[in-house]
Design brief:
342 residues, alpha/beta, D-Maltodextrin-Binding Protein, domain 2, 2 domains, 6-stranded mixed sheet, 5-stranded mixed sheet, globular, disordered N terminus
């Protein structure tokens, strides 16, 4: 079939060109709509029931959708120390190399020493008191402290999943029975000193090294909350959990200020609202997880026992007084917390 210059082929070429021009704005729009990416780190396993990092992540994804950010911000979750040990991740968040981490507040005392006040033994008597104290004004100076000292925002305050108590290969009820026993403490000077004052040979160790250290006999035990013990399977080696309940520690969602400033301006405030709401939901799950984990530990053959808690509290008391002398900026925050009754 003969085709004239105005025939079929030129028409197809013109039609394709027109379609390309029409599609171009749509493609540009799609590129602009690519979600803003954030990396979130946790040292705990990828356990949706007992690992606070995974629980917070799930609630954060839910809250991002509820705040209209489901397709605008994409959070990638890295559990189980995939991005490094906690202290390395904390430094990376400070520098903006990693965007976020969800962790107990303890690790940050290595970078912002005054923040260690949250690890003082028996400062909080319950999680209810913790919330009341933070909401009454204690959170604001702590937030400012982190932003100034580490270039990091606390975007959510939650609970570690249960009070910290001692899991060991032996039973005890009083401080004297801890003498010479190597109990792992988080590599944090305040907690290390607290464990020493409680009577043990405090042994700072990175979280990822605890299991093998227990197996090898390098450790006689550790202090941590029940869900973390379940999620990390420490109960497979140590079978006695003594409810010293020496720390009701906060869980924090920490965001690099550098990452926050990289975020498109119109997404920042909705993101902060979503992150805070996810932390509140994580609190409720934490309280339930503690009780579930204690029941599961009993099923796994762990003996759960009480102790002479006033004796441990008395041993720990000098730590708070010494801390206030060494860290005058922390004193009004500690006094405010002490004045708050649940």
């Amino acid at each position: 079939m003969h085709e004239t210059p105005g025939g079929r082929r030129p028409f197809l070429r013109h039609a394709a060109a027109a379609a390309s021009l029409l599609a171009a704005p749509a493609l540009i729009g799609q590129a602009r709509a690519a979600p803003h990416g954030l990396r979130l780190s946790s040292s705990l396993p990828n356990d949706p029931r007992y690992a606070n990092g995974r629980v917070y992540y799930d609630f954060l994804v839910k809250q991002l959708a509820a705040h209209g950010l489901g397709e605008k911000i994409a959070v990638s979750f890295f559990p189980d120390n995939q991005l490094g040990q906690e202290i390395d991740v904390a430094n990376s968040v400070k520098l903006g190399v990693i965007d976020m981490m969800v962790t107990g507040t303890s690790i940050w005392a290595n970078l912002v020493p005054d923040f260690g006040l949250l690890d003082l033994g028996y400062l909080f008597k319950s999680f209810a008191q913790q919330t009341k104290a933070l909401d009454a004004g204690a959170a604001a100076p702590l937030d400012a402290m982190m932003l100034k000292g580490a270039h990091v925002r606390v975007v959510g305050w939650a609970y570690n999943f249960g009070a910290r108590s001692v899991l060991a290969k032996f039973a005890f009820t009083e401080p004297a029975q801890l003498a010479g026993k190597k109990i792992r403490s988080l590599p944090n000077p305040v907690i290390t000193e607290l464990v020493r004052l409680m009577g043990a040979a405090a042994t700072p160790l990175a979280f990822g090294e605890i299991y093998t250290a227990l197996q090898a006999g390098v450790l006689d035990g550790l202090e941590h909350d029940p869900p973390t013990i379940v999620a990390s399977k420490f109960f497979e080696i140590a079978k006695f959990y003594t409810l010293t309940e020496h720390i009701f520690s906060p869980l924090g969602a920490f965001l690099s200020e550098t990452s926050f400033r990289r975020m498109p301006a119109d997404l920042r405030e909705p993101f902060l609202a979503a992150a805070a709401a996810a932390a509140v939901e994580t609190r409720a799950r934490g309280l339930a997880a503690e009780q579930e984990a204690l029941a599961l530990l009993r099923q796994k053959g762990v003996t759960i026992g009480d102790c002479d808690r006033p004796a441990f509290e008395k041993r720990a008391a000098p730590l708070t007084e010494n801390f206030m002398r060494a860290h005058p900026a922390a004193k009004p925050i500690i006094e405010q917390i002490r004045a708050t009754n649940a």
